[in-house]
Amino acid sequence: MNTKKRIKKLALAVTLACAAFGTGSAQAATDAEIVTAIKAGLGYLNSTQQAGGYWNYGGYEPAVTGAAAYAMLTQQSHWGTNTAAYQDTVDKAMAYLLSTASTATVSTRNDGVAICGGGTCTAVYWNAAGNEDSYTTGLIAPAIALYAKSSPNAVATTTGPLAGMTWKDIAQGITNTWAASQSTANQGALIGGWRYGLNDGYDSDMSTTQWGIISLIYDQTLGAVTPGITKTDLAKWLNYAQDHTSGVGCYQGPSSGLCDHSDTGGLLLGLKLVGGSASDVNKALGFLNTNWTATASGTWYGNFGHPYAMWSIYKGLETTIGLTDTTTVTNLQSGNCGGDRGTDCNWWQDYNEWLVSSQQGDGHWNGYSYWGDPLATAFYLPILGGTEIPDGGKTPEPATLALLAGALLGMTSLRRKGNTPSC
Predict the structure, then answer these.
(1) pLDDT at 10
(2) Is residue 216 exposed (0-12), middle (13-18) or buried (19+ Cβ within 10 Å)?
(3) Contact in structure between 269 and 314 (CB atoms under 8 Å)
(4) Exposed/middle/buried for 329, CB within 10 Å: 0-12, 13-18, 19+?
């Protein structure tokens, strides 16, 4: 066992011992509230699944089902006496997702560059209303990776469009889809990202691109191979999408006029994947710190109260600075965690305090704009649980996770900028 894991186990043991003997500080009560909120959120998602294994969302059922299943899987340590019921819920969700997938054969991108990976040219993806296959596939890929993490070489299903494929095959198929549909040089500066439909291949935006990024990250955990050219061209897009003065991530570059928190979170996640420069990362972090307390506004903007933005930012910060960092984001919401959490008040606890206080009585969270119920709940639960985003062998956060009495362990939203509302 490595040193960090020993520290983690020791800290958890001390925390639980203090709770058992009644010697916990005010922090213990706050931790207990977080655990209670997680359990309530799990119960809500479980109770709202439909008989067919999906969650309702106005035509975007596969996407939201992927998000809900992922959220439940990240919180398995809190299933407790509901383990059998929750496992059944997740099993039904995965069966539904496997049955609604689509496949194709791909070999090159639009510019003729070969992209078949892992010895197969099969592409796997999910169709969605409004030609938003990218969002849907990007929300499903992480759920599949978590579900199959202990058995990537097992056959996933014997029926339907993915019959006979292993979980690793499916992950590779998803990566093949992203690699084949990546924007090529036909539109110059827009090379390297992705757009709403996975057959576009000639256009990019930062909102869509983050779903390609998270898919590649999770697919790799099942053994999928990402073509080198995919990361090389993605780096070009990330460079174009960032305002290198303020650090903010932008929808289609600074000149698009749509630069916001959620695009900055996706930018950070992408920079982590491609090994972006420290300067670009620090500028993005600086933007988030300066604008941290902003609340949701105008559909696309803001942080607190915006499920899409908060989940995007969480992924970017967790992979970049971790859950215990107290020096990068210091412009916290006034009074959100300083008084009751003591010295461990930081960006993650700022989120947690807001989430605990805004959860509704039945366990769900209200959404915002296109990202309503139950999608908001599916985005917020992994934040509360301290979900670890895969990072090529990164060691789990040691100290902060151990503070939670329930042993918080665990491991992106349908958004389209334009005149046609998405879900």
Answers:
(1) 29
(2) buried
(3) no
(4) buried
Contacts of 228 (CB under 8 A, 6+ apart): none
What the block records as the tokens of 316 is 């970017």
- Residues sharing a CB contact under 8 Å with residue 172, sequence separation 6 or more, in sequence order: 117, 118, 120, 122, 219, 223, 224, 225
pLDDT value of residue 411: 28
User: What pTM does this model have?
Assistant: 0.87
Distance CA 104, CA 377 (A): 33
Tracing tokens 């698009």 back to the chain, one arrives at: 256
Q: What is the pLDDT of residue 300?
A: 85
Euclidean distance between CA atoms 55 and 332, whole angstroms: 34
Peptide bond into 396 cis (omega under 30): no
Q: pLDDT tens digit string along 240-253?
A: 999 999 999 999 99
Complete DSSP assignment for 87-137: HHHHHHHHHHHHHT-EEEE--B-TT--B--BTTB-EEEE---GGG-HHHHH
pLDDT at position 187 is: 73
Longest CA span, the chain: 66
Question: What pLDDT is stored for residue 344 in this prediction?
Answer: 65
The gap from C-alpha 8 to its chain's centroid, in whole angstroms, comes to 24
- 26-48 and 61-74 helices, crossing angle to 10°: 140
249 membership: H or E segment, kind and range? strand 249-250
pLDDT under 50: residue ranges of the chain? 1-29, 338-339, 392-423
The confidence score (pLDDT) of residue 336 equals: 60
Q: Buried b vs exposed e over 237-254: b needs ≥16 C-beta within 10 Å?
A: bbbbbbbeebbbbbbbbb
